[in-house]
Amino acid sequence: MARQKRYPIAVLSAATFRRELAICGTVRCEVARGVRSKATLARLRRFWDVMIDVPTDNAVWHEVEDLLYKLDRSGKQIPMADAVIACCAKGIGAAVFTFDEHFNAIPDLKVISDLSFL
User: Hey, what domains does the chain have and what are their CATH numbers?
Assistant: First the structure.
């Protein structure tokens, strides 16, 4: 969203009127590493802290291992972080909002890449 010159908190806040939003630690870290301003990071953290937190317990890591194993053997390679995010989302029956094409390689994952979902 930042690449599209849209403020992520404003865009996602609008979505909270129609749906619950969830986040996992991997998403937090992936987004945070690209934030340039400490003030922006602080605002994002406050926003993330009120979202549903999807923990990455041993069951999630087993799913990530299995997913990466299957994808690698079928000739599809995706970043490990994307696999973690996908398994967290699938674990709670959620869709992943992303513009990253890697998520389309993950079987049975609901992917939203259009801001009209808001």
Answer: 2-117 (3.40.50.1010)
Cα distances (Å, whole numbers) of residue 32 to 5, 82, 89, 106, 112 = 17, 15, 19, 24, 21
> Where is pLDDT greater, at 20 or 33?
33
Give the predicted TM-score (pTM) of the model: 0.85
Helices 80-91/25-32 angle, 10° precision: 140
* 22 alpha-carbon distance from chain centroid: 8
Residue with tokens 């599209």: 4
Over residues 60-110, the pLDDT tens digits come to 999 999 999 999 999 999 999 999 999 999 999 999 999 899 999 999 999
3 state DSSP class of 95: coil
Give the position of tokens 């999630």. Answer: 60
Q: What share of the chain is helix, strand, coil (3-state, %, to 5)?
A: 55, 10, 35
